[in-house]
Amino acid sequence: MRTLLFFLAASLAFLAYAESDHLSPSSPDGLRQGGTLGQDLPAPPIAGDPREVKREVRNYPEQPPVIPHAIRDYQVDKNFNRCLDCHSREAAVQAGAPMVSVTHFMDRHFQVRAEVTPGRYFCTQCHVPQTDAQPLVESDFKAVDEVIRASNRGDR
Hints:
There is one protein chain. The chain is mostly helical. It has a domain at 84-153: Flavocytochrome C3, Chain A, domain 2, CATH 1.10.1130. The protein contains 4 helices and no strands. The protein has helices spanning 2-19, 84-87, 92-95, 144-153. The longest helix has 18 residues, at 2-19. The protein starts with a helix and ends with a helix. Residues 1-18 form the signal peptide.
């Protein structure tokens, strides 16, 4: 009986120790800095709406263009796609918006369809709004034009 009481007391002491900060390791400092694994810190503020509205230069071939306007509260689901109100084949000219690329009308077998195919229907899978957000990680990415100029000069 004494042994059982001893183990019970030892277990309770260990649980009290485990609840303290001694066993709460700091979180790995990834994209969200500081805190411990058990803490819920407030999220950083959401980046602002788009900078000035203009078309951005693409950094590489086939890069999806960024969205130069706010899209908060846009409905894009299986029943309705608000983006197509301006970017569809019929509405683009009157809206002054670029029409959805012809690739969005091709299915997985490269057959051209009359409407945007399901694989390209959910715009924000690839396209993101421009923001004034600062980069979360450093990048040494070079645009394709820079790479070509460097290779022509012999830089490597």
